[in-house]
């Protein structure tokens, strides 16, 4: 049996031994993978001291030089795709192919954000006074605290650190206690590219201790958080005490509208993918379907067949599986409970509906529920598992009203051949993103942001980059 890896916090350019540890397990078979620091508030504060100490000279470094470190790191990731992908699969459970996509996408993302090094621009604003010039500069905020979830643990490091660093901030990252290993592997590679000490730091630990200390600290100028609404709300309370800038990417309950004139091949393929990819644990993927009555029977029969055909299991034991385990026991129990409750309230089980008996590991069967209604929890609350609830609608107006009637507002999608229908959906769907006749997967040059409880601010593209800056307006007379 292989020994668990011992990881150490990365603070001020050095890996540090730690007194307290958390254990990390493989969700597919529950084997022990690693021991990582259970950081204390003191550990967190030292990481913040390091980030604070490094920030002024980092901000004074030309942006193109800051960007060069990101390009070098991107190349290191590309040289290590298979190894890094294995670390992700082991601790998070996503299949190897998707883990490799995550590593490659992360490298591309680092390059993309690095390209902004030469493009960060201010503005010259017309004045009302004859001899005055008004300049708007963009400046770094200072020290960023990045708090990560477990579902795309590797990419989300880059989504926070790349725009933070290229704009002149320094950062302290706290990975999820479920998936810290890949973050320490990221730090090991970053350590090889010669980044100045203290610019990038990693402290692992629990949310209650390390996460709380990080978000409560007065040393933090911006909190960039991705995770659940409940934690986002706690973090907001901490931020309120210090008036700390917040960027929150929270949950989703993406509606998919399938109209009578939809290309059903496309709709079935894309919506199935939404529920299978990363075992349905993706904030932006379709989580509820509103299908128009004329195609409802055919859509339900076809999506059920497609879901049933999914091969699932331990991705490291069987390289052909399309779907791995769920992240942990709590996630599995929540999904099982939601399905049971929906059935108890009258939903019709079309396929799946059970915890999969594969020995060890947290596996759930790909599941389709028809006959769902808007008042059921399964149509309103985040499932985060391979379960698709379906409700029949008669008109697009009705579907849009039901889609909007939700506390989340991250992504949405519609399948239709009609330009008018598509344009009506664009106008009336009240979400941060809408995908028309395609799977829900954002581009790095877009802007990933939600409304309502899905978050505050956003990530990616120019708008995401500028979230990590503040404006400084200068008035010059003469
Ligand atoms: P979570 O909120 O349980 O944990 C996220 C992080 O917050 C972890 O690192 C955790 O340790 C930390 N944390 C917990 N309590 C804390 C506290 N009191 N103070 C500070 N930090 C604390 O979320 P999760 O289960 O890891 O991730 C799943 C959730 O993330 C889902 O709701 C999903 O929709 C959401 N998510 C959203 C996006 C997006 O882009 N909007 C992307 C990925 C995941």
UniProtKB/TrEMBL annotation:
<dbReference type="GO" id="GO:0004030">
    <property type="term" value="F:aldehyde dehydrogenase [NAD(P)+] activity"/>
</dbReference>
<dbReference type="GO" id="GO:0004777">
    <property type="term" value="F:succinate-semialdehyde dehydrogenase (NAD+) activity"/>
</dbReference>
<dbReference type="GO" id="GO:0009450">
    <property type="term" value="P:gamma-aminobutyric acid catabolic process"/>
</dbReference>
<dbReference type="InterPro" id="IPR016163">
    <property type="entry name" value="Ald_DH_C"/>
</dbReference>
<dbReference type="InterPro" id="IPR015590">
    <property type="entry name" value="Aldehyde_DH_dom"/>
</dbReference>
<dbReference type="InterPro" id="IPR016162">
    <property type="entry name" value="Ald_DH_N"/>
</dbReference>
<feature type="active site">
    <location>
        <position position="249"/>
    </location>
</feature>
<comment type="similarity">
    <text>Belongs to the aldehyde dehydrogenase family.</text>
</comment>
<comment type="pathway">
    <text>Carbohydrate degradation.</text>
</comment>
<dbReference type="InterPro" id="IPR050740">
    <property type="entry name" value="Aldehyde_DH_Superfamily"/>
</dbReference>
<dbReference type="InterPro" id="IPR016161">
    <property type="entry name" value="Ald_DH/histidinol_DH"/>
</dbReference>
<dbReference type="Pfam" id="PF00171">
    <property type="entry name" value="Aldedh"/>
</dbReference>
<dbReference type="GO" id="GO:0042802">
    <property type="term" value="F:identical protein binding"/>
</dbReference>
<dbReference type="GO" id="GO:0016052">
    <property type="term" value="P:carbohydrate catabolic process"/>
</dbReference>
<protein>
    <submittedName>
        <fullName>Aldehyde dehydrogenase</fullName>
    </submittedName>
</protein>
<feature type="domain" description="Aldehyde dehydrogenase">
    <location>
        <begin position="17"/>
        <end position="473"/>
    </location>
</feature>
<keyword id="KW-0560">Oxidoreductase</keyword>
<dbReference type="InterPro" id="IPR029510">
    <property type="entry name" value="Ald_DH_CS_GLU"/>
</dbReference>
<dbReference type="GO" id="GO:0005829">
    <property type="term" value="C:cytosol"/>
</dbReference>
């Amino acid at each position: 049996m292989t020994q668990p890896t011992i990881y150490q916090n990365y603070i001020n350019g050095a890996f540090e031994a730690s007194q307290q540890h958390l254990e990390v397990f493989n969700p597919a078979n529950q084997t022990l993978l690693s021991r990582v620091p259970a950081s204390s508030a003191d550990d967190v504060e030292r990481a913040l001291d390091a980030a604070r100490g490094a920030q002024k000279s980092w901000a004074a470094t030309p942006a193109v030089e800051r960007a060069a470190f990101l390009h070098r790191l991107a190349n290191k990731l590309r040289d290590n795709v298979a190894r890094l992908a294995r670390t992700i699969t082991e601790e998070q459970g996503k299949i190897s192919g998707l883990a490799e996509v995550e590593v490659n996408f992360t490298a591309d993302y680092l390059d993309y954000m690095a390209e902004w090094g030469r493009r960060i621009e201010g503005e010259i604003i017309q004045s009302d006074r004859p001899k005055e010039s008004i300049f708007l500069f963009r400046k770094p905020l200072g020290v960023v605290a990045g708090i990560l979830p477990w579902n795309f643990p590797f990419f989300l490091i880059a989504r926070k650190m790349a725009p933070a660093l290229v704009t002149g901030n320094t950062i302290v990252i706290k990975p999820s206690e479920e998936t810290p290993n890949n973050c320490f592997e990221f730090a090991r590679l970053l350590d090889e590219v010669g980044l100045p000490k203290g610019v990038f730091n990693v402290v692992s630990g629990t949310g209650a201790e390390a996460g709380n200390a990080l978000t409560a600290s007065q040393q933090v100028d911006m909190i960039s958080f991705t995770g659940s609404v409940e934690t986002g709300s706690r973090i907001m309370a901490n931020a309120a005490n210090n008036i700390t800038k917040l960027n929150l990417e929270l949950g989703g309950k993406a509606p998919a509208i399938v109209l009578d004139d939809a290309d059903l091949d496309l709709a079935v393929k894309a919506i199935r993918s939404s529920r299978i990819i990363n075992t349905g644990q993706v904030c932006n993927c379709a989580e509820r379907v509103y299908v128009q009555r004329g195609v409802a029977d055919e859509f339900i029969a076809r999506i059920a067949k497609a879901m049933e055909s999914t091969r699932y299991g331990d991705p490291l034991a069987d390289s052909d599986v399309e779907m791995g385990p769920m992240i942990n026991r709590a996630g599995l129990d929540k999904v099982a409970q939601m399905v049971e409750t929906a059935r108890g309230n009258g939903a019709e089980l079309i396929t799946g509906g059970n915890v999969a008996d594969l020995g060890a590991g947290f596996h759930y069967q790909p599941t389709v529920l028809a006959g769902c209604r808007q008042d059921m929890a399964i149509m309103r609350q985040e499932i985060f598992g391979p379960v698709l609830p379906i409700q029949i609608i008669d008109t697009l107006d009705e579907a849009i009203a039901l889609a909007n009637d939700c506390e989340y507002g991250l992504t949405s999608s519609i399948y239709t051949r009609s330009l008018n229908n598509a344009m009506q959906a664009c106008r009336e769907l009240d979400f941060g993103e809408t995908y028309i006749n395609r799977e829900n997967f954002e581009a790095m040059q877009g802007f990933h942001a939600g409304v309502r409880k899905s978050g505050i601010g956003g990530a990616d593209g120019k708008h995401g980059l500028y979230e990590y800056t503040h404006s400084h307006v200068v008035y010059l007379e003469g």
